[in-house]
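Side project, low priority. Logging it here so it doesn't get lost.
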Amino acid sequence: MRRVEEAARAYAGRNRLPAGEEAARRRWRAFVADHLLDYDEGRDRPDLDVTSRMSPYLKLGVVHPRTLLHDVAPLVHEHGGARDLASELAWREFYADVVHHHPRSLWSDLTDGLRAMRYDEPVEDVEAWRQGRTGFPIVDAGMRQLLAEGWMHNRVRMITASFLTKDLHVWWPTGARHFLDHLIDGDVASNNHGWQWVAGTGTDAAPYFRVFNPITQGRRFDPSGAYVRRWVPELRHLDGPAAHAPWEADDGYAHGYPEPILDHAVERREALARYEATR
């Protein structure tokens, strides 16, 4: 974990990834040398720069997944980081295979269990989500990172997707399209089936009643608040985990950050009620 914490101290933001095969190979070699063995511990931390960032290169065909798997395969039986990285590569190929056999699942529910689900079309709230103005810091940080970099940490992708589908009660293709409009690694199979995993309509879907709490998720995976402060400058005056709950600070809204557009507890109950109504 020492390397993970060193990365946190050294991370001061990043630019877009450089293009080309040699740049991809440099990034990959640095990741294997510095962070592969810590990947299982740090991969859910958006405040750390410890993921491989190879997804754009994979999406564009600059590198082949077999090349990456070849480098980590000797370690998968000994190290959790290598095992988790190999698993992520496998998920990418799995989703491609699902789309090959079920092409309609790109823009329709793969499974039929939630076909009767009632969805909303809250135009203003969806726009607040797109712009990173929901009043939930970890959600807004992720959505602003997406607009600025064309990339978002995977843990935050799940949090923001859960917010749209479970808090705003919006059908997942709305979010999938927005992500594809902005992601430089926007692989349609991985993106859309990742959204279905969150929405509870895809392969091995998370149970629909698993609703991500954006506040506890932020505190758990961005414990120092560094990720939020990086992307939400209106909260940079709040130290540590206080950045995840500006409503608890006397000066939390002193710099123009919006108040929450909804009550998560209320919308969680609403999501579960809608789920029960489909059964």
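Brief comment: Residues 69 and 86 are 6 Å apart (CA to CA).
Revisit when time allows.
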